[in-house]
Amino acid sequence: MEEFKDVNLMDFSASYIDQNGALLKITNLNYAIKRFSLDDYLKLTGIQSFAPGRIIRRKLLGSFEPISANCPTEDTVLILRSLLTGGFIRINEPLIYYRKHNSNISNSEGLSRMSNHGIFSQYLKDVLHFYDNGFLNDEQLEKLVKRLNLELDLRKLRFSVKRKDWFSDFIRKLKIKWLTYQYKLDN
Hints:
- The chain is of the alpha+beta class.
- 46% of the residues lie in helices and 17% in strands.
- Strands 1, 2, 3, 4 and 5 form a 5-stranded mixed β-sheet that branches.
- It is globular and about 50 Å long.
- It starts with 8 loop residues before the first strand and ends with a helix.
- The mean pLDDT is 90.
């Protein structure tokens, strides 16, 4: 954190272990260090983050109101907040062991139970906070609101839909691609 004084959040990689502590895999990204920006988010650049391997500056937490009780997660909220305040760094160095098992809250079943509207509401609240305090102009606000709407639609498709068969799963994936393509055309 001392080397990258202008970022408020930094993610590290992990060694994945099972419930008994046996090594499953080690994260191996195609870079050593990468910085992600708000521009990356708006352009739909793949943003790799890893909440369990995260350190945060107190400054990031103090720049916003507390996360709403209706928002079921802080992980993605902190990513958006870091992007709004200058970006974040991802370092491909496995500094933690991450236990992976069927009871993880972040498994697909756990994610499908989270309130997408609660998450979206928090995103919007944070973006409007930055706009109201003069850190975003009208054009940036408009782009961010479009991107947040896309995020809500994608979250609903990825996490709220129960996959019943291969055909419905295929249609869901097509909808995700279409929404993403449509967003890119509009920007």
